[in-house]
Amino acid sequence: MKKNKKQTFIFITAFALLAFAFVLRMIYEDLNNAMLQSIMSTTRNIIHIILLFLWVISLHRRLINKNVRRLMLCVGGLLLFWMIDKIVKWEFTGSVTHPLVRYLWYGFYVGMLFVPTLGAFIINYLGKPETHSHPKKMNYLLIPPLLMLTAVFTNDLHQKVFVFYNGFINFDQEYSYDWMYYIVMGWFVVMGFYFVVMMLLKSRVPGSRKLQKMPILIMTFAALFWLGYSMRLYNCDLTVMDCLIIVLLLESAIQSGLLPSNSNYQQLFDSTTIPMQIVDTDYQPHYVSSSALPVPENIMRLTETAPVLFGDSLLSSAAIHGGRVVWQDDISRLNELQDRLQDTMEQLDEENILLQAELELKQKRAKTDERNRLYDRIAREVEPQILKADALLRRIETEPENTRPLIARLCILGSYIKRRGNLLLLKEDNTALQAKELEYCIRESLENLRLAQVFTSFHACCDGWLTPEHIVAVYDFYETLVECLLDNITAMLVNLTCTQGSLAMNIQMGCTETITAHTLSNLTLSYGSFTYDIMEEDVVINLTIPAGGDIVC
Predict the structure, then answer these.
(1) Cβ burial 459-478 (10 Å sphere, 16+ → b, else e)
(2) Cβ contacts of residue 249 below 8 Å, gap of 6+?
(3) Most buried of 11, 396, 489, 528, CB within 10 angstroms?
């Protein structure tokens, strides 16, 4: 209410001063006292200039959008220029025939042409963010008023705006309008109506419909006034009336909310549900919303550097002209959620520990199961050799006189069991093995054959990779051969060649007695082929496995 009273007082005072200035003009025109006329005229001009200047200053304080504010200040500057130009023309020039007086008159059209043009630029910013800039193509809108203004200032050459009957003598009394004048006034009126209509169309302010109709009423009155003045139905101070109409038009747009302004703070703070307040530099509150909680001054000062926790609120502030705005964000729900989140995290941590322990137990169980599976598989695949080794151990206990040859046989079986198990483990994790693995297996077996008094010789050239199945097949074939002829072998020569995935092995054996083909009938080879040749006490075996395609290493 206090704010409304203050605003009403300002409006009443302004209109009272305007009425007083109008009365002064009506009085001093009929006076014969030149000094009194000068005093009244000067007083009237001072009133007009002061009121217009104060209105321009208020635009800088009230308007929110900086781009709109700059344009409105340009409008205010043009109006002040217009008013000062009028005062200089009528009050400070002597002879009306002087060209300067005429060009001061032409200067009136600077404001008349560019003020409504700037209104079109203002319309472009309505409803846009403060970072919005008008399109560059809008600058072309300045070309028509520039051309028309050029036509006005060159009127002395062509007289298509004003036609002077008797040359330039008494030009401001004896003149008429030509067709270019009506183009200029048409631009003035059309751009003015465009400003009003577009402002109403773009407005999204749910305010008073009566106030929002005021710009249309004022613009309609202005059009009728200018039409009557052009028809010379009445005589008045046209400059003052034009400036007054423009100010009323823009001010009505501000008051109705069509142009956003930062007025009616108290009404805003009374209506808002946001806990906030505006304080001065000493942190004394000036505007406080109804939902804002009292905040001590020392707490508000802490918000200058960072937001501050204040109970279930987060207190923040930002610097504004003449003080700061302080607002409170309700974080009670956030605090509740944070507590619940903390409880959930603790619960999840406990569950995570249990899951981790369960996972470790499963991993240990899986490792044990995998180890047992591999042991069982090794045991199954070398079961005949294990049984033979077990029988040899029992014979060692019962036949101590044969301990050395029995241990030799046991070492041969043990080397096969170890190497065969190693191949199985390598086969689990690899799709291809180095050919050297087969060389290591046969070399170790031949070394153990020497314990059984068997002369051995081994030559190997193993490069590249072989499939695990080929290596196992060859090694099993070799072991079966050794176990079959171990009692008769006196010498064994092995030549092994592995290149590019293919394998060739030549075995020559010397025996204590003649070997029959029936003795070798149990030999089988899962891959490739083999041939043997029995020459009395010597046996020659050739084994080949061709390359089985690309081997993935």
Answers:
(1) ebebebbbbbebbbbbbbbb
(2) 192, 195, 196, 215, 218, 219, 222
(3) 489
